[in-house]
Write a structure and sequence with these properties.
It contains 15 helices and 17 strands. It has 488 residues and is α/β, with parallel strands linked by helices. It folds into 2 domains: 272 residues, 3-Layer(aba) Sandwich (Rossmann fold), CATH 3.40.50; 181 residues, no CATH class. The strands form 3 sheets. Strands 12-13-14-15-11-16-10-17 form an 8-stranded mixed beta sheet. Strands 2-3-1-4-5-6 form a 6-stranded mixed beta sheet, with helices on both faces. The protein has a 3-stranded antiparallel beta sheet with strand order 7-9-8, sandwiched between helices. The N and C termini lie far apart (50 Å).
């Protein structure tokens, strides 16, 4: 048996102020057939290595193609997307034939000319490999699950967890399903239930925690192969934007349909409880001040992981005005200020204008007197699971007694070493304010006495009813409509 693997990943915020171009895909890779070795510390490299090792252990021939990823931003430049896509397709044609094709995709990639890049890739791959080959795709749950994807793939498996800590397990699951399909020992049948919802669904807290466990339990039923919840990506305006459940059975379409509907209705029943109710900045700072120990405050709306610029400093300004002590804030994406700090040198005190540089969602800049405490080239942090995440050249500055991290490679904060890697001690901090919506929980929950997701200004607001969709096909969704499925 011959196995082919490739990956092309970015999450497109169609409301973001700039496109995703080649530079965005060059911060980590791209890897032209060597992600499993040269990119072994990245998520893409870990999936490539997993599929390589599983194929080797089974005695299969394995061919690794392009693996490329970019931080979330605006629509991908057409030529960049199509060049990457065509590289994958060319490898398939020249190095084939293949029995199994495994893809690591996001599911919410939009280019300047295509609203469904993953569907486009899957359709073109199906044309090349024919109807008998098994095509599998692992997707991020923040995806747009489209009919074209379902039609052209043999199986699609989504990460269940948010934070996305289970991508290796899901990659193994996808491998097993696709190999079984290629051997003819199973016949994957997929069905989708549209929850008619748009929302934000962290899986570490109830009610979502119990719903994920319910999906896992459903997979143990006879003939059930996989159950996934596509959270959807609210800030990607496409015809299929929204929350859906995908169930895959072994040759039993009615079972897949019933299971998808069962889980989908259970999620729909909790729709009001699933709406985020984050406190605003002043209230969050009060909660932090009253916390006995360390409070972690999440700057949710300026999260680079959702396509925001990550240079809005409204929360930092409020912290300074409130004279917060024993606090840290980061990471502010400001390559210009990082360069200025590097030129000034460690120990220098200088006037600095930070943040507010990218567009309206960035808000106003903040003029401060900053002392440069540390500078590090090619700074990084622990990412999701064991993967590393680049932060680029970064500076630690002190502003009004608050430690602030400025970075030059746009990224949300995943782990404490985004701060400690520059020398900032966190053990004595009362408030750790960071730019992320939820992925930070995987690592910061270990040191936080309290976690507060804050309703901050920025590009990824949680007012889902008010998002200015132009392309979304179904506008009668919750929370715009109280009961779109008319089940209450």
């Amino acid at each position: 048996m011959r196995v082919f693997a490739a990956g092309l990943i970015t999450e497109t915020n169609t409301f973001a102020p700039w496109p995703t171009g080649l530079a965005g895909f060059s911060e980590e890779g791209p890897f032209h057939g060597d992600a499993s070795t040269r990119g072994k510390d990245s998520m893409t490299g870990m999936l490539a290595a997993l599929w390589h090792d599983l194929s080797r252990d089974a005695g299969f021939a394995f061919v690794e193609s392009l693996f490329a990823s970019a931080q979330p931003s605006g629509p991908a430049v057409r030529g960049v997307y199509e060049a990457f896509r065509d590289e994958i397709l060319a490898d398939l044609e020249t190095k084939g034939p293949f029995d199994v094709v495994l893809l690591f995709l996001h599911g919410a990639m939009v280019s300047q000319a295509c609203d469904d890049c993953e569907g486009d890739i899957l359709a073109r791959i199906r044309e090349i490999v024919g109807p008998k080959a098994a095509i599998g795709a692992e997707l991020d749950p923040h995806c747009h699950l489209t009919p074209l994807m379902i039609e052209k793939a043999t199986a699609i498996v989504l990460m269940k967890e948010y934070p996305h800590t289970d991508y290796v397990e899901r990659g193994r699951e996808l491998f097993d399903i696709c190999v079984g399909a290629a051997r003819g020992t199973i016949k994957p049948v997929s069905r989708v239930f549209d929850c008619r919802m748009v929302g934000f669904y962290p899986t570490t807290t109830e009610p979502m925690r119990g719903l994920v466990d319910r999906m896992s339990a459903a997979e143990k039923r006879p003939k059930m192969l996989s159950v996934s919840f596509a959270h959807g990506f609210p800030w990607g305006d496409t015809p299929e934007t929204g929350s859906k459940v995908l169930a895959i059975s072994d040759g039993d379409a009615p079972l897949a349909e019933l299971t998808a509907a069962e889980i989908g209705r259970a999620i729909y029943a909790e729709r009001k409880a699933l709406l985020p109710g984050f406190p605003r900045i002043d209230a969050a700072l009060k909660i932090g001040a009253e916390t006995n120990g360390c409070a972690v405050l999440a700057d949710t709306a300026d999260n680079a992981g959702g396509g925001a610029p990550s240079d809005n400093v409204a929360l930092l300004k409020a912290m300074i005005e409130a004279k917060v002590e024993r606090a840290v804030f980061g990471c502010v994406w400001d390559p210009v200020s990082v360069k200025v700090c590097a030129e000034a040198g460690v120990g220098a005190t200088l006037p600095l204008r930070i943040g507010g540089k990218s567009g309206p969602a960035s808000g106003e800049p903040l003029d401060v007197i900053a002392t440069v405490r540390a500078f590090r080239e090619a700074h990084d942090q622990m990412g999701l699971g064991p993967a590393r995440s680049a932060l680029g050249d970064s500076a630690w500055i002190e502003v009004a007694g608050i430690d602030v991290v400025l970075n030059s490679a746009r990224s949300q904060v995943f782990a404490p070493d985004a701060f400690t890697g520059l020398g900032i001690e966190l053990a004595d901090k009362r408030i750790i304010a960071l730019k992320s919506s939820w992925h930070f929980q995987a690592q910061f929950s270990k040191i936080a006495d309290r976690i507060v997701a804050v309703a901050t200004p920025g590009a990824i607001q949680m007012d889902f009813a008010g998002i200015d969709y132009k392309k979304k096909r179904d506008m009668d969704f919750f929370p715009r409509v109280a009961d779109p499925l008319e089940l209450d």
